[in-house]
Amino acid sequence: MAPTLLAGTNRSNPLDYAFVPNYSRMPARWESINDDRILIFTDGAAPNNGRPGVRAGCGVVTGPSLDSRHLFRLEPDVSHQLTSNRAELRAVEAAIEFDWKMEGIKTIVIATDSEYVAEGATLWIRVWRDWSGRWVVQKANMDLWDRLMKAIEDKEREGIRVEFYLIDRVWNLADRYAKAAAKRLHFTSAGLLEESPAISASEIYPK
């Protein structure tokens, strides 16, 4: 079953959609009024898309402060060019793979400004693949789409629902982290169990 694209979002501020900050248990994330529902901002960036030497980065934000950010370079793949679409898919996969069941989470809401990711995962995936998961339409980035859908299906088997929330870029707290990650020279862990290395103000707020 494909995940849900939340209705009526209209690219509005996601923090207006029944989500409030809650620091009672885990400062690194935003919670909804119901403590078993979590909002996660994700984004990917490839500033030199399509050019030689391109680097791509991924950002995941689960809270309102800089201490709650997770950013990493998109891993190189000799079979695929590094693009912002691939970085966006990888960021969502990393966000979903965290052990949210341990935190008592039952619904994950991915806030993204990427129509490619949000509509692809909730609408077009039903056209691209048949009921068995076999691809009937050849698409770019099928390897990452397969990995993302497997991550979603694994969560569903754990009793965790995944939803997507399409927002405007101005509301995406992960945008600047993805861009900062793309500028880094070294790779860091993509696991959300670890905080990312220290990030400078110049990386987040370039002049």
UniProtKB/TrEMBL annotation:
It catalyses: Endonucleolytic cleavage to 5'-phosphomonoester. InterPro entries: RNase_H (IPR050092), RNaseH-like_sf (IPR012337), RNaseH_domain (IPR002156), RNaseH_sf (IPR036397). GO terms for biological process: DNA replication, removal of RNA primer. Its EC number is 3.1.26.4. GO terms for molecular function: metal ion binding; nucleic acid binding; RNA-DNA hybrid ribonuclease activity. SUPFAM superfamilies: Ribonuclease H-like. It comes from the Eukaryota. Residues 34-183 form the RNase H type-1 domain. Keywords: Endonuclease, Hydrolase, Metal-binding, Nuclease. It is an enzyme of class 3 (hydrolase). The keyword Lipid metabolism does not apply. Pfam families: RNase_H (PF00075). Belongs to the RNase H family. This is ribonuclease H. It comes from Laccaria bicolor (strain S238N-H82 / ATCC MYA-4686) (Bicoloured deceiver). The lineage of its organism: Eukaryota, Fungi, Dikarya, Basidiomycota, Agaricomycotina.
